[in-house]
Amino acid sequence: MHVKPEVAHFLRQLRMSGVFYCNTTARGDWGLQMPVDPQCLSFHVVTEGSCWLISDGMPKLQLQEGDVALVQLGREHMLAANPDRTVAPRVDQLPQRYLSENYSIVNVGCDGLFTRLLCGMLSFDAPDVHNIVQSLPPVVSASGMNLNNDSSVVKLVGLLADELSEDRLGGEAVAVRLADIIVVQIIREWLSEESSFEPGLIAGLADPAIGRVLHAIHDEPEKPWAIADMARLSAMSRTSFIERFREVVGVAPAAYVTNWRMEVAKTRLIETNEPIAVVGSSVSYSSESAFSKAFARTVGISPSAYRQTAREQSR
């Protein structure tokens, strides 16, 4: 597997937080609507049987035993035994047995064909990785990749199937860790197989000249990034750099720098108790007023309101 160095750098920072894991056993003509969170990637691993993944605006996808599917942030979708199903109960609103705060066991149906799967929702701690995940297609399926029996994904799914098939001591902890690793491996496999990307962060990182600039911006958001500095780093003329950056990343360089600074600031606002002025200084703003105006213009609300809202939602 070969992943470009610029992309590999970000994958090494791939830190996830499990929001929800559900070990599901389903029989008969079942269906489950998945909860939606715009900050979370959903995943589904089928360890026995088969099912259909149904989401508006995309072809219905059949998942067979051993298949894995990643569903884009905030995308509504359901899993069902029947591809023609249009409605289903929300899985998180069904009776279930919780083995830990974020791991439950759900049984649906009582007769008919048998399916076992582990579903989950993951959030990503680093804003750069979050942006990479946003660049993935609506659904990434292992069944659409050239995976052989020696693939790490295939082996990991086999281990997960063993854990889910028996009630073992600490089984949920092992299952959660295996599921997280499977998600990382699927993202790596997809990145290594794709030869071209839609405009965005991944396409930018895969471009040698633009990738150098993105890498530097992400490492030093506090630096006063002038167009001349970025063009020099890319070894391109100012005009060529602006055109190439917009073509590959999809936005102008200055807009990207501002957006990235705000992503970093949002993370610091949530994860630290630093004063607003300190957060602003960490992303290049010399005054609290200038930072607050830029943040409100980009994000839609003030830094203090964003911090308060984010913390209230996490309780």
Question: Outline of this structure?
Answer:
The protein has 315 residues and is of the alpha+beta class.
Keywords:
about 325 residues, Jelly Rolls, Arc Repressor Mutant, subunit A, 7-stranded mixed β-sheet, about 45% helix
Topology:
Blueprint: H1 5-11, E1 16-27, E2 31-33, E3 40-48, E4 50-54, E5 61-64, E6 68-71, E7 78-80, E8 97-100, E9 103-108, E10 114-124, H2 127-134, E11 139-141, H3 152-165, H4 171-193, H5 201-206, H6 208-219, H7 227-234, H8 238-249, H9 253-271, H10 276-282, H11 288-299, H12 303-313
Parallel strand pairs: 1-9
Antiparallel strand pairs: 1-10, 2-7, 3-6, 3-10, 4-5, 4-7, 6-11, 8-9
Helix pairs in contact: 3-4, 6-7, 7-8, 9-12, 10-11
Radius of gyration: 22 Å
Shape descriptor reads globular
Q: Give the helix level as a range of percent.
A: 40-55%
Q: Averaged pLDDT, please?
A: 86
Major sheet, described briefly? 7 strands, mixed
- Walk across the major sheet and give the strand order: 8-9-1-10-3-6-11
Q: How many structural units, i.e. domains?
A: 2
Describe, in plain words, how this protein is organized in 3D.
The protein is an alpha+beta fold and 315 residues long. Helix content is 44%, strand content 20%. The chain contains twelve helices and eleven strands. Strand 8 (97-100) and strand 9 (103-108) form a beta hairpin. Helix 3 packs antiparallel against helix 4 (171-193) and helix 6 (208-219) packs across helix 7 (227-234). The longest helix is centred in the middle third of the chain and has 23 residues, at 171-193.
